[in-house]
Amino acid sequence: MRAAVTERVGSMNVVDRPDPPRPGPGEVLVAPEAVGICGSDYHFFAGELSATAGGGSGGSQFPRVQGHEVAGTITALGADCRAELELGQRVALWPLRACGHCYPCSVGRPNTCDNFELIGIHVDGGLQDLLCTGQDQVFPIGAADGAIAAMAEPVSVAVRAVRRARIESGERIVVLGAGPIGQCVALVARERQAEVLVIDLQPSRLQRSREFGAETLVWSNAEDVVRQARRWSGPGGPPVGVDATGAPAAVRAMIDLVASAGRAVQVGMSTSEVALRIGSLTEKELDLLGVSCCDADDFAEAVAVVERNGPAIRRLVSHEFSLAEAPGALRFAMSNPTEVMKVVIWNA
Question: Which of 96, 158, 150, 152 minimizes the C-alpha distance to 127?
Fold first, then answer.
């Protein structure tokens, strides 16, 4: 079978590999159909995932088949798989495997497991013809095509963010960043009947946010953005701010614009440091919430969100490549951040 293998930092090649064996008990053999590429793939390819960012298994491990945003079809089932899984079924893969015995797992937070493994980071992922995984990672999805189904994983991060933020109907939410995750946060928040303002540097990205029913604001500078966002939300500022950029200026703006007793939700990943006035946290008594990967319930909800919003989610896919083009596709995405929204690699 073919596999796009990241052999070392900055080097990916499409090679022939032996087919995996037939699945064992509780395992499913999936033929990846479409694989989305995101920022963590860029960081892995560049060798920038630390042990913390890459999980308890030690960060970047080469050689590796990347790809954790995976949609495919079931080609074989091992014994004892659950009855709803069927041959030929389109599925989305929840990429996280938790250890089940660390502190986060013991308190019902397996998505923050100290020893987690991610498909495409710690174990081989979707950029290959066949992938064997545990049945717990496999979710049937009624999406019109594989590109839509592959968006279940980024949508799941948005579901996690909205749940962590406790967003309710009628609340006003400010989302900083109109990349794929910010767009998905806006979509999920709008499904909860929240009012959403999305802020980004690029007007073209904000057009997609408006298609999801959000209002928009072009980033100018932090002081002006905070002022305009608080004016939009009404007296006191919005109850929820979500940063989907990881950029220090945006994170600081989120803290400054959120109302007293509000929730500031950090989704964007970064190794940067942010200067904050400590009094912003104590005087306003903010809830400062981080968001990691999703849990199984979040992923199931993300599948439902994708099924309800397929055509809108499909419009987030900006570029499509074949598996043979995967090395160039990854380099293109990394070199053209303002042009790319979501790259999908097809197994064709």
Answer: 150
